[in-house]
């Protein structure tokens, strides 16, 4: 049953996407027809990148001739159309821009061809609603989740109507409010990213090309195997449990006193994590035991500057300690390491405040989203 809300002569109804767009996909392009240059050919991963960052360093192309032939026979995406991922991260939307010129992989991406009376940015925001996300990600009975044309056609989104017609002005009003709110969140995110880049530049300025002695890893630290702790064994206590990709749970006991540095041994090979507090490192990781006086914050940033994704095994992928021990690392005076750590701690306090602001902005945005699509904004 349609949900209807009356406000200022605006009537709200849930409408299936098939009534707002012609939903289709592309014509088949075989792998043998992919090129190294020409017209960009997008898969789902490129659409995600475009949606999040607005650009993509493309890897695949088709010939200009094929593009023009397909454009003439079947059409190509136009400004205002919406491309939606149907595999991988489902339901990510990219709105086609005026100067876009590309083709895309069938089965990977859905093509929502615009009709009159619909603001594409409004629809993109609608795809962020929790109810629609649940619908998109609902099990389709297959091992690998897919968002199909059939399911897209049946996807229902709240739409404003006036005198029986879609109210484009109300859509635009809601979009403007959400864009301003989203901008606040993005500013906080950019501020965090800026501070991360600032710390990288400070590290390079303080330690590189300064003539400091270099020592092999084996002279500076020992890589110690973590200890197994299964999901069932973790009891949700106060101490973080680290796997190769970061924190994977909590436990009431710790294995290592903090601070400490953890390196991925299997899985996310060579990924470096830092723990300020006592922690547990599981058996897919190494934790570092210094062989001389060294600041862990400095050590964390030092190791992050090296590519430790070293895997020489053809049988069982993993990071061999001897490969890390053989690397030559700069060994600056301990007081300088402490000075850098002090700067990091100051920046981290700033980031905590920014993170709180970001959380508040996200809560505001979610609240506005909820109200906007209920017709009470």
Describe the sheet with the most strands: 4 strands, antiparallel
Q: Share of helix among residues?
A: 25-40%
Shape: globular
Mean pLDDT, to the nearest integer, reads: 93
Number of helices: 10
- Structural class estimated from helices and strands: alpha+beta
Which architecture of the largest domain per CATH?
Alpha-Beta Complex
| Neighbour order of strands in the largest sheet | 1-2-10-11
Q: Please report the distance between the alpha carbons of the first and last residues.
A: 23 Å
Q: Kindly report the CATH topology of the largest domain.
A: Adenine-n6-DNA-methyltransferase TaqI, Chain A, domain 2
CATH class bucket of the largest domain: Alpha Beta
Describe this entry's structure for a reader.
With 377 residues, the protein is an alpha+beta fold. It has three domains: 6-166, Adenine-n6-DNA-methyltransferase TaqI, Chain A, domain 2 (Alpha-Beta Complex), CATH 3.90.220.20; 169-209 and 334-377; 213-331, Adenine-n6-DNA-methyltransferase TaqI, Chain A, domain 2 (Alpha-Beta Complex). Helix content is 37%, strand content 21%. The chain has helices at residues 44-53, 64-73, 120-126, 130-137, 149-154, 168-207, 217-220, 296-304, 321-325, 334-372; strands spanning 6-7, 10-16, 22-24, 39-42, 61-62, 82-85, 93-95, 103-104, 109-113, 156-162, 165-166, 214-216, 221-225, 239-243, 246-251, 260-264, 272-275, 279-281, 285-290, 328-330. A four-stranded antiparallel sheet has the order 1-2-10-11. A hairpin with a 2-residue loop joins strand 14 (239-243) and strand 15 (246-251). Helix 6 (168-207) runs antiparallel to helix 10. Residues 1-7 have low confidence and may be disordered.
